[in-house]
Amino acid sequence: MSGAVLHGPRARNLGWLGAALLLGAAIGVAAAASPLAAVGLIALAGPAALLLRPEWLPPVLMVTVFAESLAIGGLTISRLSGPLALAIVLFHVARRGTPPFPHRSVLWAVAAYVGWAVASAIWTVNVDDSFAEGGTGFALASLFLSLTYMAAFAILIDSRQDLKRLGVVVWLLASGLGCVAIGQYLSGAERSLAYAGDANFFAALQVLALPVCTVVAAQARAGSRRLIAYLGVAVVVGSVLTSLSRGGLLALFGVVALLAFQPARVMFRSRAQKRVALVVVALGAGVLLYAA
């Protein structure tokens, strides 16, 4: 009907499409006048969009974690995004009200993490007030950044859809950068690291992403999607091997052991899917172990 008025998700999607087109046109005009103006417009558009749709902040933060080596003006992307993330979270809390108080077990886990991190920082660096890399101030600032990320994930992920979105983003990042890392190794690099800045850090990221990627693959309904998702799992495992990180390899074996011994119902739809996942992990490890 020509006089019909759009409502609901379709109207919102058309609104976002219109906003994206306007933003693209504005960036194009700015780029014609000055490249620096275009970059500034893009830098302002991202936080503004996240203020309107804060549920997308956790996936964006996950991107900064996997791209830790990227830096602007000497600051890594995570240290630039941390203050913005804190501002968006505070704005969300002020607008929506205080979120539900976390379960006591979550609070104990956070407290244990903070305590262990502070003890590790004091034990491994010279205690001083320096914010240079290696100083205590730098280590505590890193801890505060971690707590900011934790708060963003805890507050802004409050539905199954949010969790599913984050899982898919983790799978895309881990499998995509896993391909990059494997390509780096096969092209002659001694150790693969993708864009993480450090091979050991990259291996740790991939090991942490492995259970998430496995859940995404197990929950995929269509056969073709499930096959692609499991190929991504194999790539993640193989990329850990090409990093040649001893700590990463030990952690990988530990995670695979946990996947093997825990009940299938925890992460999979059936025991058959669990067996498929373990076979994929073994194949990915075997192929890249031979290559490495």
Can you summarize this structure?
The protein is mostly helical. It has helices spanning 8-33, 35-52, 57-66, 77-96, 104-124, 136-156, 160-186, 199-219, 223-242, 246-261, 271-291, and strands at residues 71-72, 75-76.
Please describe what this structure looks like.
- This protein has helices at 8-33, 35-52, 57-66, 77-96, 104-124, 136-156, 160-186, 199-219, 223-242, 246-261, 271-291; strands at 71-72, 75-76.
- Helix content is 76%, strand content 1%.
- It has a two-stranded antiparallel sheet with strand order 1-2.
- With 292 residues, the chain is an all-alpha fold.
- It is globular, with a radius of gyration of 21 Å.
- Helix 3 packs antiparallel against helix 4 (77-96) and helix 8 packs antiparallel against helix 9.
- Give the overall pLDDT as a whole number: 76
The helix tally amounts to 11
SSE sequence, one letter per element: HHHEEHHHHHHHH
Number of strands: 2
Report the biggest beta sheet as strand number plus sense, adding barrel if it closes. 2 strands, antiparallel
Report how far the terminal alpha carbons are from each other. 62 Å
* SS content category: mainly alpha
Strand order of the largest sheet: 1-2
Given as residue ranges, the uncertain stretches (5+ residues, pLDDT < 50) are 1-5
